[in-house]
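lol forgot to send this yesterday, sorry. struct tokens for the thing we talked abt
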């Protein structure tokens, strides 16, 4: 690897700044810098990782890139140390396209937050009694917004809910809650999140993600990503593509939209991947 293949100090700083010093992995988003005990110093757990490797034999190496391109900002992504190691240990799963999407989304999120005052709800707005019933928004798939959850316990700064139609548990940090609307009577409260609660098919569970789905019909099934027709077979996913405009009809026959490990649904042209419920 030549010096031109590596990132300069200036490019490393720019990659960190453009990601808001947060890990670009949408399933992580860890803060990568903060204060040391020494008041004059800071700690950094972030890494300027190569999208395509800096040298032959490395993960996702592209022989057509010039050395100066391998060391350019466009070929870099800001990650925490754990995720930097993860992407290089599983290069087939974390492809160039996946990493470019992570980078673009992380930088768009940072851009949207710059100069915006954080809205911090009062603590009194973030309290619930054990046994309280709630509905959670936004939740994907959107049809599950009608499912009720019950607060089972409070653990430090987290609420632990049980989904009443499946008995699954969901742990939600109070810092992830924008507001709680309590209506009184027997009507469940509405828990409004700063991101989204998302079904992930590969893990068969609900998880939290920082991005909200698009408003209106465009976000009914969350956030999609374009793949080729052979993508499901290569990953061993037993499903079939159906036209997006026919999804309500298809889902009414017992099919489910498939959500990948990054919580996106898979689109091929104007079709969406659906699977049987197992």
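and heres what i got for the seq, position by position
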């Amino acid at each position: 690897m030549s010096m031109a293949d590596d990132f300069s100090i200036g490019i490393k700083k720019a990659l960190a700044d453009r990601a808001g010093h947060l890990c670009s992995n949408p399933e992580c988003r860890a803060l990568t810098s903060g204060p040391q005990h020494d008041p004059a110093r800071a700690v950094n757990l972030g890494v300027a990782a190569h999208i395509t490797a800096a040298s032959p034999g490395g993960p996702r190496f592209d022989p057509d890139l010039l050395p100066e391109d391998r060391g350019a900002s466009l070929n870099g992504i800001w990650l925490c140390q754990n995720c930097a190691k993860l992407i290089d240990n599983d290069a087939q799963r974390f492809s160039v396209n996946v990493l470019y999407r992570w980078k673009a989304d992380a930088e768009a999120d940072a851009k949207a937050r710059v100069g915006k005052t954080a809205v911090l709800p009062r603590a009194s707005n973030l309290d619930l009694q054990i046994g309280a019933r709630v509905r959670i928004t936004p939740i994907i798939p959107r049809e599950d917004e009608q499912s009720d959850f019950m607060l089972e316990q409070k653990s430090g700064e987290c609420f632990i809910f049980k989904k009443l139609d499946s008995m699954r548990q969901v742990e939600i940090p109070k810092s992830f809650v924008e507001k709680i609307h309590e209506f009184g009577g027997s009507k469940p409260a509405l828990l409004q999140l700063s991101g989204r609660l998302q079904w992930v098919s590969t893990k068969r569970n609900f998880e939290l993600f920082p991005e909200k789905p698009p408003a209106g019909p465009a976000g009914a099934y969350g956030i999609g990503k374009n793949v080729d027709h052979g993508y499901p077979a290569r990953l061993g996913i037993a499903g079939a593509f159906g036209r997006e405009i026919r999804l309500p009809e298809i889902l009414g026959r017992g099919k489910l939209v498939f959500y990948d490990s990054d919580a996106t649904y898979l689109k091929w042209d104007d079709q969406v991947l659906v699977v049987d419920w197992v």
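Residues 160 and 171 are 4 Å apart (CA to CA). anyway ping me if u want another try
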